[in-house]
Amino acid sequence: MPKKNLTRHIEALIFSSVQSINVQEIILALNAVFEEEHIESQIFESLDLIKEKYNRDDSAIELVNLNKGYQFLTKKEYHETVNQLQLHRSKKKLSQAAMETLAIIAYRQPITKLEIEQIRGVNSDYSVQRLLEKELISIDGKAETPGRPILYSTSSLFMDYFGLNNLNQLPQLKDIAKEENSIGESVE
């Protein structure tokens, strides 16, 4: 296979890999697709060509050697721009279950996962984990009960995200309850 074509295949492998890809993985992938054996020296030559291509000033990404492998990353001068996009996207993606869990934590903090699950009636492992990843909640110590379960509270990012100065600015539950959601007759 011509060197230029090999280089493009390696570039495609690195681009499509979620995490860094090592030389052995590149060789395995290429040997599985093509009938000829590829050796490390060919791979390293192609990697050098790819590095040169992306080291130019007209590219926003670069090929980086990480953890004994290779990965495309944004050049440092663009990190703030990419970070803004990530923040914007992460704010939009809270599921209904995550919102319910977040509301319970906000109104009942500090609270254990077991207490959250008792209120919701379902397992909340995933929702709690997502909220921790998004840094909307934080671990606030351990409860003084048997087993010493972890206590969760809202974070300062939660306050920023919802535009609150303190928790007293959360809407009161009585302000949220709708009459149409009540059961039975209203007795005054």
What report would you give on this structure?
The chain contains nine helices and five strands, in the order αααββααβααββαα. With 188 residues, it is α+β, with helices and mostly antiparallel strands. Helices cover 51% and strands 13% of the residues. The chain folds into two domains: 3-78, Winged helix-like DNA-binding domain superfamily/Winged helix DNA-binding domain (Arc Repressor Mutant, subunit A); 93-179, Orthogonal Bundle (Arc Repressor Mutant, subunit A), CATH 1.10.10.10. The chain is elongated and about 80 Å long. The chain has helices at 3-16, 23-33, 40-55, 79-92, 96-108, 113-120, 125-133, 156-161, 173-176, and strands at 61-66, 69-74, 111-112, 137-142, 150-154. Keywords: Cell cycle, Cell division, Chromosome partition, Cytoplasm. This is SMC-Scp complex subunit ScpB. InterPro entries: ScpB_csome_segregation, WH-like_DNA-bd_sf, WH_DNA-bd_sf. One of its GO terms (biological process) is chromosome separation.
Briefly characterize the structure.
The chain has helices at residues 3-16, 23-33, 40-55, 79-92, 96-108, 113-120, 125-133, 156-161, 173-176; strands at 61-66, 69-74, 111-112, 137-142, 150-154.
The CATH C-level name of the largest domain is Mainly Alpha
Query: Total strand count, please?
Result: 5
Shape: elongated
Q: What would you give as the CATH superfamily of the largest domain?
A: Winged helix-like DNA-binding domain superfamily/Winged helix DNA-binding domain
Q: What class would the helix/strand composition place it in? A: alpha+beta
Q: Mean pLDDT, as a whole number?
A: 86
Q: What's the CATH topology label of the largest domain?
A: Arc Repressor Mutant, subunit A
Number of helices: 9
What is the succession of H and E elements?
A: HHHEEHHEHHEEHH
User: Helical percent range?
Assistant: 40-55%
Radius of gyration: 26 Å
How many angstroms does the end-to-end distance come to? 86 Å
Low-confidence stretches: none
Major β-sheet, in short? Answer: 3 strands, antiparallel
Tally the structural domains.
2
Q: In percent terms, what proportion of residues is strand? A: 5-15%
CATH architecture name of the largest domain? Orthogonal Bundle
